[in-house]
């Protein structure tokens, strides 16, 4: 990230908020260097030195009195110690308004109130799960078939077939998913399949007529007559993508193994005929430590294999701000696939299948909006102003 800390030059913003309990403030200017606007809600992170700015002497020791204000409104933020040596911290918050291309916006950093209560913390990332305990699973919609336990700061997951999903994300156009995990085998013959899926935002609900037809066909998947079941299955495949939401809902809700199998078959066949707007990274763990890797970006597939090291497997999925370019790196930084996906991502799922004789040990999963170093905004922090 390129950060500019400038003292002087800029006039201080009169935001109308200055509470008499706060003694100091500095204007924070954010400049958009992109060829497109930075939208409201986009996260920004600023690396700053409390020692250089004087926060270590004038703010509370825990920085609980720090406030970010724009237009008289206090903006939730997060201020945590940055990685590395020294006293640098990361100040993170979400934009309170759009910033047009090649333009700027101004916020105000307040501090110097020894009696202030801690500020509201911002949820800057779309998803942060560290798998320390079962409460972390509340971030997901978890299938009942998934078995979970927690040990040494890891979530241990297994299932014959099940998933953990986060739905209705805010429409990610640029993003970075990061995760570290491993397969813990309790049996020399243990293995299974584990995958990450990022699915595009649905284009819209099918019209009422199509929805009614799909519901009627799904009902016939469990019919006593084999021919009726076969015809209904084929008809659902012909409907195509508009059938997917209701078919997937039926797969999740039914207890009939025949209906579940047919729902799964329909989804797979539709995907073959018209590739789904999704990103898939699939790991197949084999006895002896070998791992087969299959990645899919909007229908473009790539396959490879590697031997899992004793430590974690790392994964990074990035979609850049230009042309929908997607880059998947795993393991150990190797590029596994590069493709294009233009649709907004709306759902992230972690899926398990046939995990037997062991478990997938998850350390962390994060999803954040992403800008390359060339596209990230620059920041200018003005001279300190003391309360009159």
Which key features would you list for this structure?
alpha+beta; Immunoglobulin-like; Jelly Rolls; Leucine-rich Repeat Variant; 8-stranded antiparallel beta sheet
Can you offer a commentary on this structure?
- The protein contains six helices and 24 strands.
- The protein has 388 residues and is an alpha+beta fold.
- It has three domains: 24-124 and 372-386, Sandwich (Immunoglobulin-like); 127-202 and 276-368, Sandwich (Jelly Rolls); 208-273, Alpha Horseshoe (Leucine-rich Repeat Variant).
- Strands 8, 10, 11, 13, 18, 19, 20 and 22 form an eight-stranded antiparallel β-sheet that branches. A seven-stranded antiparallel β-sheet has the order 9-12-21-14-15-16-17, with no helix packed on it. Strands 1, 3, 4, 7, 23 and 24 form a six-stranded antiparallel β-sheet that branches.
Reported CATH architecture of the largest domain = Sandwich
Number of H- or I-type helical stretches: 6
Distance between the termini: 35 Å
CATH classification, class level of the largest domain: Mainly Beta
What is the average per-residue confidence, as pLDDT, rounded to a whole number? 87
The total of beta strands comes to 24
Low-confidence blocks of residues: 1-12
Number of domains: 3
Question: How much β-strand is present in the residues?
Answer: 35-45%
Rounded to an integer in angstroms, the radius of gyration calculated over CA atoms is 25 Å
Please summarize the sheet with the most strands. 8 strands, antiparallel
Encode the helix/strand succession as letters. EEHHEEEEEEEEEEEEHHHHEEEEEEEEEE
Q: How much helicity do the residues have?
A: 10-25%
Write down the overall geometry: elongated
Structural class: alpha+beta
By CATH, the topology of the largest domain is Jelly Rolls
